[in-house]
Amino acid sequence: MNEKLQGLAPVADAGTRVLVLGSFPSVASLKAQQYYGHPQNHFWKILGALWGEPLDKKDYVERKQALLRHGLGVWDVYAACERQGSLDANIRHAEPNDLGALIASCPKLQAIAHNGGESFRHARVTGAFGLPVHKLPSTSPANASWSFERKLAAWRDVLGRYGLCDACT
Question: Residues 127, 133: contact at Cβ < 8 Å?
Fold first, then answer.
């Protein structure tokens, strides 16, 4: 039996307009205690391209400040799970996060965006909150079938709908 892994706290505040939900942090992210901590993950590079700032070159405190400044929140659908490695397919005995409590603390929230397929499996749950729900291509290095440019275009489309980047329109 694997040990129970604990996820990370949400990055969100009262100004959050779009909440991005991943599945569960990778081994590298848990070790660093940072969302999207694997250097090959495109999350920070995509947001940096959309916001015109090199987030992949900044420290984590600055990255989190940029998220909040732009109205983007980040969390995961799972609070805890057992998993060998980082692949979503290996997640076992997952415990969900209390999404309702987080959403209640974000009065300006306009939409929820799932980062990848495993997270999007919970779209029925997130859709029950009465907000638009979007499926974004996973920024994970495991999603090699999508080029960076194709991921960027999909993220630009969704975040641009909610005014989360000047360069999106």
Answer: yes
